[in-house]
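Subject: sequence -> structure tokens, single chain

Hey, anyone have a minute? Need the predicted structure for the following. Not urgent.
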Amino acid sequence: MDVRTDVDFQIVQEIAASPAAVDQALVDPEFLGRMAELPKLGSAEVLGQSRDGDVVRQQVRYLFQADLSSAITAVVDPKLLTWVEDSACDLAAHHTTCTIEPDHYENLLVASYEAGLAENGDTTRRTITGRLKVHVPLVGGKVERAILGGLEENAAAQADLLAAWIADR
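Reply:
Had a minute. Here:
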């Protein structure tokens, strides 16, 4: 029986751009496609996007691509590690809410996060707070730690990708 509680996490990014520019990049389908360049992501595909005033709702599918231990691959097929990030980005408030919806193994993972942008001198501080729960007896904690490690690695690479993308515009 898996009796552990959810894992709360926080990741902070410093991005060399204004909050408005960061928000615009994060809802630009061309930039979102470039997210596949981040570590451990095999693809990024915008499935849908709509706008109502300052709020952009979007669904983006990602593929996890990395070497996994035999303990993890005994439970999941790496080719089926895809998920959709369903988000609402309020461009005026610089605030995003997001749920992670696995395409497969939906009973094994529950995750969501919120992200806020704040001006920080010449940069933008993006603070991401979320909750993650992996429902796999015995290895769930190991999987959660692997996911969080990947999120932190991707966040650092994403900050660089955002800054470069915005500077090229």
